[in-house]
Sequence to fold (182 residues):
Amino acid sequence: MTKLPRTEVLLVLACAAAAAMLGVSQFMDIFHLSPPVGGEAIQAIGAKHQHGYATLVLAIFALALMVVAIAARGEQLGQVAAIAIAVCGLIALLIFLIGDLPDVNKIGTLDTPTQFFTSAQAKPVAGFWLELAGALVLTVCGAALATMQPGRASNGPLHGGRSHESQVAETAPPRLERTRGD
Fold:
């Protein structure tokens, strides 16, 4: 197996980190319901209550697709897997934008065992921001990974030490020159 170029390695690592962020955000609180005027949180809302385990499934699927993309690098299957990674990120981003974002700072009534009809405001916490960052990074880095062309990346002067012009000069047939005096 050939060595991956640095850019590709960084993109794969960024995709893996983004998938991990999505997976971890699934087990964190995304909103704290607190009184609108301030005070301690009355109740917490986790990601599993907001949209089930959808982001966890997307994170696991993205990690599996990364293995396929690395194993089939340079082939059409590898590029399709990289596109699918970006689609996983896009779906996670849509879940965030449609399911979570509209609830930010929403005020409503809350029934607790100790207080009835208490006003509460949904304030985003760490899981909310981790889900957003994971979805964005997975979408962008997955799309960038899909546009990588391994054959072209290794021909540049940074990877091979020679420029494209010098390679062309070596492979070009010799030219015949005319001399005066014919």
About this structure: The first helix runs from residue 6 to 25. Strands lie at 29-34, 43-46, 107-110, 118-124. The domain at 6-171 is CATH 1.20.140 (Butyryl-CoA Dehydrogenase, subunit A; domain 3). Confidence is low (pLDDT under 50) at residues 152-163.
